[in-house]
Design goal:
heterodimer; A: alpha/beta; nine-stranded parallel sheet; two-stranded antiparallel sheet; B: alpha/beta; Rossmann fold; globular; disordered N terminus
């Protein structure tokens, strides 16, 4: 079981002090959060992708590669990578590169993105958002598994003889989670490929995402990747922790009341009771999270939003201390005790490499020589499958 | 036909049909509600007269007003509002009634409609009704309610009901109420809604695990679709 934090990279005015951090300040703060997450013993740090203010994270792999250099153990991920408006070829290249630099401590969560203008800004049509997401992943999946890809689809220019470089570390692609809040086709795609399924588990009533998670589990079994209980499920959440529950409510209230997604609707107490938002003492956060396990079944990854709505860095770092010291150690113990022996472990680069190679040495692709025109001819690597040579477009 | 003996002879007793009045009226009792109640009673009489057990229940939007506003802001209905949505989803017929304010339907009525799943009322028999301070507002039903319920893909009766102050002293209003009751009862007895949803449910776009689940016997997820084929590594011919 992995525990961690995810952020959407919002730059929000602190409603208590009235101070709005600069982009530079918020980016630095996010790096400090990520490093702190490792220090307090968390397993995962994930950052979102946005292409408009008030968010900064347009380039998740750049941030994650930097964090990778500052950390030793924590897994870096996304929340989410836009599988619609990004070219899947660039996703294949950028995340494979980041995976190398992070020495395998990298995976990613794919999502469609719901900011309408981003689609036209990147030359896409939001009405085609779902087919875009599905087709783009089909291509991404192949780019990380086949040295040479010939491909034709509806949404990008065809590929002939294309090799995505660098090949994934140890020729083991980064693990992929598919995120969705209401789309059975995404759950189906995750199940079909045996990938993970992530429900953000925020901004909706308790267990709202259970039917989608259950659909994914059933289809995971249907496609023969294991039993329902062995499917790879991740859940989000949001937490604010204080030693005493009344302090948690008092401290979090101004941020909740002004948060763009929360404010001016249901009051904090009701919202925290009706939705996965966890505000309270460490024991209350623990109890609520154990309910996730009870209802959703054994799962592999729990991430919380901890830095939302203008919460200043010092408060976020205090939150991470509490999470790491008083919440996660208890959850590790309690969840392990309740866990079915059949439940799968969260995939890591080590486990995926072991599954692919056993005790044998992983493949290390070495290119064939540049034949003089910056390509390698009909086979990109010395050990590429000769049965699938690269076929280049005829020129001249 | 004697309804009692016909029921006794039937091994599977008729389920009780649910007629739901959805009222945007504000006062107690509002004229919008009075209009709907008269129609509801006559519809009930027609159904029970044919041996079909039926019951009327009311969804008054006034006590739900704050809940509706909160649901729009918070993104999900609270328990009281969810109970009303569940009742609407489980209805066999709906009488929708609203006052006319400022040359349009009540904002509260529209706000309630805004929080419903798009597929909640597919093929639902509905009578559209409105009351106004002047007969000059009579077209609000055709101008605003009818497109709204067309968007929800309901089956609206040919007769709609508008009552201006002078209509309450005119027996022609009763004639129209009788006519609308006949139409609504006919739609309920023929089972047209389930005939449509049982066969064609998969051809509409749905909110996964939404509030409309009870409306059909069809499976929740269809796997034999272009998008599902694309999800599982297949190809998909995009429509421009």
């Amino acid at each position: 079981m992995q525990f961690g934090i995810f952020s959407v990279s919002d730059i929000t005015r602190n409603p208590v002090t009235g101070y709005t951090p600069s982009e530079a300040e918020r980016i630095d703060a996010t790096v400090k959060m990520a490093v702190k997450a490792e220090e307090v013993g968390l397993d995962v740090f994930a950052i979102g992708e946005h292409h408009n203010p008030p968010f900064f994270s347009s380039s998740p792999t750049t941030l994650l590669a930097h964090v990778a250099a500052l950390t030793k153990r924590i897994i870096l991920s996304t929340s989410v990578t836009l599988i619609t408006t990004n070219d899947p070829v660039r996703i294949a290249e950028e995340y494979a590169m980041a995976q190398h630099l992070a020495k395998g401590r990298l995976d990613l969560t794919l999502g469609r993105g719901n900011t309408v203008p981003v689609y036209p800004w990147f030359g896409k049509d939001i009405r085609q958002g779902l087919p875009l997401a599905l087709e783009n992943y089909n291509l991404l999946h192949r780019l990380w598994r086949e040295d040479v890809v010939d491909w034709e689809g509806n949404f990008r220019t065809p590929l002939q003889g294309f090799t995505s470089t660098p090949r994934p570390l140890d020729d083991v692609p980064p693990f992929v989670w598919h995120g969705a809040i209401r789309t059975p086709e995404i759950a189906e795609q995750a199940a079909y490929y045996g990938n993970g399924f992530f429900a953000n588990n925020i901004l909706a009533p308790n267990f709202h995402f259970l039917p989608l998670v259950n659909l994914y589990r059933e289809r995971f079994e249907h496609y023969g990747h294991g039993t329902k209980a062995q499917a790879i499920v991740g859940l989000g959440g949001q937490a604010y922790i204080a030693k005493r529950s009344q302090d948690a409510l008092r401290e979090f209230r101004p941020y909740f009341d002004e948060a763009p997604v929360y404010g001016h609707g249901a009051p904090l107490e009701y919202y925290a009771q009706q939705t996965p938002l966890s505000v309270g003492s460490p024991q209350q956060i623990i109890d609520k999270t154990l309910e996730f396990q009870e209802k959703f079944g054994d799962y592999q990854r729990q991430l919380w939003v901890m830095d939302h709505s203008g919460l200043p860095l010092a408060a976020v770092l205090d939150q991470l201390e509490l999470l790491g010291a008083e919440v996660v150690p208890v959850l590790r113990k309690e969840m392990a005790a309740r866990r079915s022996p059949d439940a799968a472990d969260a995939p890591t680069h080590e486990s995926l490499t072991k599954a692919k190679y056993g005790d044998a040495a992983p493949r290390q692709p070495r290119p064939n020589p540049n034949r003089g025109d910056n390509v390698t001819g009909t086979s990109p690597y010395q050990d590429s499958d000769a049965a699938t040579p690269a076929r280049y477009p005829l020129i001249g | 036909m004697n309804p009692t003996s016909s029921q006794n002879a039937h091994p599977d007793p008729e389920p009780t049909r649910s007629i739901v009045v959805l009222s945007g009226g504000m006062s107690d009792t509002s004229s919008s509600r009075m209009l709907a109640d008269r129609l509801a009673q006559r519809t009930l009489d027609r159904l029970t007269g044919q041996g079909i057990p039926a019951a009327v229940s009311i969804i008054e939007l006034r006590p739900l007003a704050a809940n509706i506003a909160q649901a729009i802001v918070s993104g999900f209905p609270n328990e009281d509002l969810q109970a009303a949505i569940d009742r609407l989803a489980a209805a066999d017929a709906v009488i929708a009634t609203t006052p006319v304010y400022k040359a349009g339907i009540s904002g509260l009525f529209k706000a309630f409609m805004d929080i419903l799943d798009n597929d909640l009322l597919i093929a639902m028999p509905v009578v559209l009704a409105a009351t106004g301070g002047s007969a000059r507002h009579a077209l609000v039903i055709d101008d605003q309610l009818r497109p709204l319920f067309a968007f929800m893909r309901t089956l609206t009766t040919p007769t709609s009901l508008f009552a201006a102050p002078e209509d309450w002293g005119d027996s022609a209003l009763t004639t129209r109420i009788e006519r609308a009751a006949t139409e609504l009862a006919a739609m309920v007895t023929t089972g047209i809604r389930s005939a449509i949803t049982d066969d064609a449910w998969g051809q509409y776009q749905h909110t996964f695990a939404g509030n409309a689940r009870a409306a059909t016997a069809a499976p929740e997820v269809a796997f034999d679709t272009d998008l599902m084929r694309l999800a599982t590594g297949g190809t998909f011919a995009a429509r421009a």
